[in-house]
Design goal:
The structure holds two protein chains of two kinds. Chain A has a six-stranded mixed beta sheet. Chain A has a four-stranded antiparallel beta sheet with strand order 2-1-4-5, with no helix packed on it. Chain A has a domain of 39 residues. Chain A is of the alpha/beta class. Chain A is built from eleven helices and ten strands. The longest helix of chain A has 16 residues. Chain A starts with a strand and ends with a helix. In chain A, α3 packs across α4. Helix content of chain A is 38%, strand content 22%. Chain B is mainly alpha-helical. Chain B folds into two domains: 158 residues, no CATH class; 77 residues, no CATH class. Chain B has nine helices and two strands. Chain B has a two-stranded antiparallel ribbon. In chain B, α4 runs antiparallel to α5. Classes of the chains: A alpha/beta, B mainly alpha. Chains A and B meet through α2, β6 and α3 of A and α7 and α8 of B.
Chain lengths: 286, 266
């Protein structure tokens, strides 16, 4: 089932002096079952793009197809609830959505909205909380008592508990510490691989794109500037640099070594492999 | 919410924009009082002419003034219907079934509507041509004499300017939270009554939490910069009354006096 944009434009504040075209004729199809990164500068239309995926924003022009829904500009779609259950959207700094008295109640809020029974919702909430690394002891605490990182986990669990088919994340790791970031990214990768969820993630962090994602969509001025597999994207630094993006540290290091006369094969992706390759060559010439 | 223009500042360069905020506030008060003096249609004609003159001078478009009145249209219709039932003076104009509409009702409603229109036009002239910060400076200065009897003029002005400053932020925050909760299956538009209650709760609680958080952050930031209420402070912007400012105050008061004269003698 498709997750696709056809000639989609989105204009904010139409007919006022503040009119702004955030998306401009976007043609794009996300691949199902893969983890796709959406990158681009601030104001390039990333957030606007992903908010079309669960119809929080409706296109000003063009058509958005998500799973079995088709949303065309000019129509006023009804009953978007099912779509919102199928496409879980996690905003930047999602901790501001917490409002219930206890963490468990808050996380079961989503499933209950989509018609799950009290008992079922609790069960799913508990599963989601454990998945996000929040132990049982936090279930009955007030969300406001948690630390920043724990709040983030609880908020993400609140969307995972809905068990969506597609998970859309808008900078989910902004403001987390390096360890928390790594755990979160690993969790999303597991959800993608094991639970077969399509994941679309907006990020500024090239290391995350490089390490965890299958495909990259580059946005610039409301248009899709590039859409390719991560392997192609990082094959050498020319693609990144052509788009004005600083490649990940490992790619930059490989580049610098090549320039210094080393023969570094393209498959090298980790610092350990790179070290081994360099050591061999040094020894050979030694 | 973006189309809501009542009370919005419009950055233009006009003689009205350049006036001292204190002069504008005093002039507005004088004109508001003038509206409530029963000077009959002649008085309102004079006031309308004066306000129209100010709008022309301020370079505000009449469509903008019209837009700022829109939210009040509903109230005007409501007032008219209420008055039609309640007031039974003058002659009967129309009879629909058991209900008759009296000329007194129509006149009374027209009076109220004209007053409302004038009030909106005058206050819009003030808010659209005065930056919120200038406005609070003006209010602070005007409240200065009252500080002798214990009215905290500076604190009131600071309160108002902070409140104004955070309106756009809170609107943005509300949209953000609404979107997040809608993504969790909250239906803000459709749904049963009980569902709507929980929808509102899921919006209000986070909004309060973040508003308190913001207030706390702001208080800390202000303290860190040495702000202490009640202390003597110097100002970056010093207000100065010029010839035109005095003329505005005098003109508005003359208008007020004029309406009183019309009310008494015409």
């Amino acid at each position: 089932m498709p997750i696709a944009f056809e000639k989609v434009s989105h204009v904010y504040s139409t007919g006022t002096p503040y009119e702004f075209k955030a998306l401009d004729g976007v043609d794009l199809a996300f691949t199902e079952g893969r983890m796709t990164a959406v990158i681009g500068r601030t104001g390039s239309g990333k957030s606007t793009l992903v908010q079309h995926l669960n119809a929080l924003l409706l296109p000003s022009e063009g058509t958005v197809r998500v799973l079995d829904r088709e949303i065309t500009a000019g129509s006023t779609p009804k009953g978007l609830k099912k779509l919102r259950g199928d496409v879980g959207l996690i905003f930047q700094f999602p901790e501001y959505q917490l409002f219930e008295e206890t963490v468990l109640k808050d996380v079961s809020f989503g499933p209950k909205n989509f018609g799950a029974s009290e008992e079922d919702a609790r069960k799913r909430a508990k599963q989601a909380l454990r998945l996000c690394g929040l132990e049982e002891q936090y279930d009955e605490r007030s969300p406001l008592e948690l630390s920043g990182g724990q709040k983030r986990r609880a908020a993400i669990a609140g969307v995972l508990a809905m068990d969506p088919k597609v998970l859309v994340l808008d900078e989910p790791t902004a403001g987390l510490d390096p360890r928390g970031t790594e755990e979160m990214m690993k969790l999303f990768r597991t959800l993608n691989k094991k639970n077969n969820k399509t994941i679309i993630i907006v990020t500024h962090d090239m290391e995350q794109v490089f390490q965890y994602c299958d495909e990259v969509v580059v946005m610039a001025d409301g248009k899709v500037a590039a859409h390719m597999s991560t392997d192609e994207f990082f094959a050498d630094s020319s693609v990144c640099r052509g788009l004005g993006i600083l490649p990940p540290a490992i790619i930059r290091t490989c580049d610098a070594l090549r320039e210094a006369g080393f023969d570094i094969p393209k498959e090298i992706r980790t610092s350990a492999a790179l070290a081994k390759c360099v050591a061999q060559q040094v020894r050979r010439h030694g | 919410m973006g189309s809501f223009v009542l009370g919005k500042y419009i950055a233009l360069d006009s003689p009205v924009h350049r006036l001292d905020p204190r002069a504008k506030i005093v002039a507005m008060l004088a004109m508001l009082i003038a509206i409530f003096i029963p000077a009959g249609w002649y008085g309102y004609a004079v006031l309308f002419a004066a306000v129209a003159g100010v709008i022309l001078l301020s370079k505000l478009s009449f469509t903008f003034i019209w837009k700022s009145m829109k939210p009040m249209l509903f109230m005007m219709v409501f007032l008219f219907i209420m008055n039609c039932f309640v007031i039974r003076t003058g002659e009967v104009l129309v009879t629909v079934g058991k209900i008759s509409i009296y000329s007194g009702a129509v006149m009374q409603t027209l009076y109220i509507i004209v007053r409302l229109l004038l009030m909106i036009m005058i206050t819009t002239c003030l808010t659209a041509t005065t930056k919120p910060l200038d406005m609070t400076l003006g209010i602070e200065d005007l409240l200065k004499p009252a500080s002798r009897i214990g009215v905290p003029g500076h604190e009131i002005a600071m309160l108002i300017s902070i409140a104004l400053r955070f309106i756009p932020d809170l609107i943005e925050e509300t949209t953000r939270i609404m979107k997040a909760q809608e993504s969790r299956g909250v239906d803000m538009k459709e749904g049963k009554f009980s569902e709507k209650i929980s929808a509102i709760l899921s919006l209000i609680v986070p909004l309060f939490v973040s508003a308190f958080q913001r207030a706390d952050d702001l208080a800390n930031a202000m303290e860190a910069r040495g702000y202490a209420p009640g202390e003597k402070r110097t100002r970056y912007k010093v207000l100065k009354m010029r010839v035109w400012d005095w003329l505005t105050v005098i003109g508005a008061n003359a208008l007020l006096a004029g309406t009183i004269v019309i009310a008494r003698f015409l």
